[in-house]
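Postdoc handover notes: sequence design on the structure in folder B. Input C-alpha cells:
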C-alpha cells in the first residue's frame, strides 16, 4: 500500500460497526497521488497525499 513520502500518512485499521453492533475489520486508505516533485532542484516522482499537495508542502515540477 502506498504511503505519503512527505508526511508519512499510510493506511489505518479499524472496524465497521453495523446497526446490530456487529464489527468487521476494515481499513481507511489515504488519498495518495504519484506526482512529479522538485527534489533538490531535480524532478522526481513521489507518492504524495493530497493534503500535502494542497498545503504547499511540495513544489510540483512542471
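Designed sequence:
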Amino acid at each position: 500500500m502506498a504511503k505519503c513520502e512527505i508526511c508519512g500518512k499510510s493506511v489505518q485499521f479499524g472496524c465497521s460497526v453495523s446497526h446490530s453492533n456487529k464489527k468487521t475489520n476494515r481499513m481507511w486508505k489515504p488519498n495518495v497521488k504519484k506526482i512529479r516533485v522538485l527534489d533538490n532542484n531535480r524532478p522526481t516522482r513521489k507518492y504524495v497525499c493530497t493534503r500535502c499537495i494542497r498545503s504547499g508542502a511540495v513544489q510540483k515540477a512542471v
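Context for whoever picks this up: The mean pLDDT is 96. Don't rerun without checking with the PI first.
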